[in-house]
Amino acid sequence: MSFSGKYQLESQENFEPFMKAIGLPDELIQKGKDIKSISEIEEDGDNFKVTVTTGTKVLVNTFTLGKESELETLTGEKVKGVVQRDGNKLKVSLKGIESVTELVDGNTIVNTMTLGGIVYKRTSKRM
Asked: How far apart are CA 71 and CA 63, in angstroms?
């Protein structure tokens, strides 16, 4: 299955505790909690481009599976990481955050980010 497509956030769990834990200011947390972000994924072989638009904030990451890439985090920090594919899942560890993006079926993506005991789960549907 290909990840390529546009997805809109449908639901999320533990947004506020997770964003607090990674150091996002309360003002940004309050602004962002009700915005239905749009994720666009372009997959070309092992090369990916992921664009996440949340209101006026646009986060773009490009990477090649299995190769070290510079990725921008939710706080805007740039860190190096290696994205691996495991079947229908993309996995990466950035600054202690374990991120797994799973293509559950042809129309649903579930992204889970874990930091310590906090699990932030986002479910998005293909547009």
From this structure: 8
Angle among Cα 125, 54, 57 to the nearest 5 degrees reads: 150
What is the amino acid identity at position 41? I
- Confirm whether pTM is higher than 0.70: yes
Total number of residues shown for the chain: 127
Let me know: does 7 contact 39? Beta carbons within 8 Å.
yes
Kindly report each contact of residues 108-117 with a partner whose C-beta sits within 8 Å and lies 24 or more positions away, as own/partner.
109/3, 109/7, 109/39, 109/41, 113/18, 115/18, 115/21, 115/22, 116/21
Say if residue 33's pLDDT is above 90: no
Is residue 18 within 8 A of residue 116, CB to CB? The reply is no
For 107, half-sphere exposure in the C-beta direction (CA atoms, 13 angstrom radius) is 4
Give 87's Cβ-side CA count (13 Å radius): 5
Q: Which residue has the tokens 């990674």?
A: 22
Q: Which pLDDT belongs to residue 55?
A: 84
CA 36 – CA 57 distance, rounded (Å): 12
